[in-house]
Amino acid sequence: MKALLDGDAQSTETAHTQSEDWPRLDEEEALYGLVGDVVRAIGPHTEADPVALLAHFLAQFSCIIGNSLSVNLDGSPNPLLFWPVLVGDTGKSRKGSAGKRIDRLFKGAFPDWTGGKMRGSLSSGEGLACAVRDGDGNDPEGILDKRLYLVQSEFGSMLKVMSREGNSLSGVIREAWDGEDLAPLTKGSPVRATRPHIVIVGHVTQEELVKHLSDTEKANGFANRFVWFAVHHSRVLPLGSNPDQAVLSPVTEHLRHAVKFAKDAGEVALSIDAANDWRKVYTNLSEGKPGIDGATLGRAEAQVRRIAALYALLDRQTEVAPMHLKAALAVWQYAEDSVAWVFAQATYPEIENKILRAVVKKGKLPDSDISALFNRNMPASQLEKAKAHLQEEGLIHDVKLATGGRPRIEWRPGPTPKKPVAPWQGGYFVFS
Question: Which residue in 199, 243, 318, 322 has the most C-beta neighbors within 10 A?
Fold first, then answer.
């Protein structure tokens, strides 16, 4: 203890350092409007990651505004539900701290807001439906407020429960994200919930996620109904603090007006300019991806449109403008980068990890540079095996460049793209 006390005191502004391949949020785009005001007001007073604050805020906003709003995708209304999962170390990543800070903000703006009556860990589809159930003979009134905000701090345990034979939770969760009526089959009295508006926020460690997210849940559309964010301990604040009320009051007032506006907004469409931008990114967003990317990012177009609509409503607009779409794309880019970091780190051997991270970071990596990653001490046979496996998984691909002699091989992220710019490079979302 004395050694600790004698050490140099860390500044309250010291950011927690992460590896150079840690996902980077484009704050200029993502922290637009009220989202940015919230993060900048609360962020300096907590060790929680700004991304965790952003995710909790958008999620709770998407719940409190209710089920009368939607975006139209392929001719069908999509409810404005945003389900983030924060992936970070237990305790150290301050996932819970971010949630409590945002809870306090919403409670200050809406003292009567409870987020629904259900608490604790989800264990069955019947239990989830019961939390927003319709009336029946035993309970004529049922639950009138269909809004339910659930923070699952033990998301890994929920994944374990879902793997049990006969458990209905996964199917009911998927229906809830789609905004469908819930009617899980039960042996006793059937439970029915019409027009539910349920938001689920998950907290999980990287190890739990990789271990318990089953192949079934990757393939059946459960995983890609959530948006995955890597989060960490962002700064050192030994004593902590709270925002000055003079700073927080305008934010709270803006939030009140935004929620009141959103409840009567109806469908949120794209403005003409935003529609033009949407056409430029739609193909890349809607293209399927192999492996874990496809499992976790397969609903990219729906997720981005939902997030963009939330940014528009926070601006008290019923049309998504270009800046709202750009903010949503910045959030989604961080989610994509998080998936790459979380699953590549945990799933592939050390040699493959190093190659994959280098290719993703640089965007284009000459084959001759790969040996240099290992100080030219790694046997060529091992490097070839690692590159071959990454290519089989669709994580990298080789491009042969003409030189007038023997072609030069260059490695790039992802499967062979149909367009020159690979999605991993962030060129995905560049408007020309």
Answer: 199
How many C-beta atoms surround the C-beta of residue 101 within 10 A? Answer: 23
For the chain, helix, strand, coil in percent to 5 are: 50, 10, 40
Alpha-carbon distances, residue 347 vs 212, 339, 393 (angstroms): 13, 11, 11
For the entire predicted model, the pTM comes to 0.78
Could you tell me if 306 and 356 lie in one domain?
no
What's 357's domain CATH number?
1.10.10.10
Question: Of all residues in the chain, what percent carry a pLDDT higher than 70?
Answer: 88
Q: Same structural domain for residues 360 and 330?
A: no
Number of H helices, E strands in the chain: 18, 11
Which of 321, 346, 371 terminates a domain? The answer is 346
The sign of the CA dihedral 198, 225, 302, 255 is positive
Check: CB of residue 349 under 8 Å from CB of residue 386: yes
Say which residues have a Cβ less than 8 Å from residue 164's Cβ, sequence separation at least 6.
none
Residue 340, SS3? helix
Distance CA 411, CA 430 (A): 22
Which residues are paired to 230 by β-bridges? 87
Residue type at 57 in one-letter notation: F
What residues in the chain have per-residue pLDDT under 50? 1-17, 416-432
Would 4 be classed as within a structural domain? no
Interacting residues of 292 by C-beta distance below 8 A, sequence separation 6+: 218, 339, 343, 347
DSSP class of 137: S
Please state the domain count of the chain: 2
Owning domain of residue 15? 10-346
Name the residue with tokens 């990317």.
293
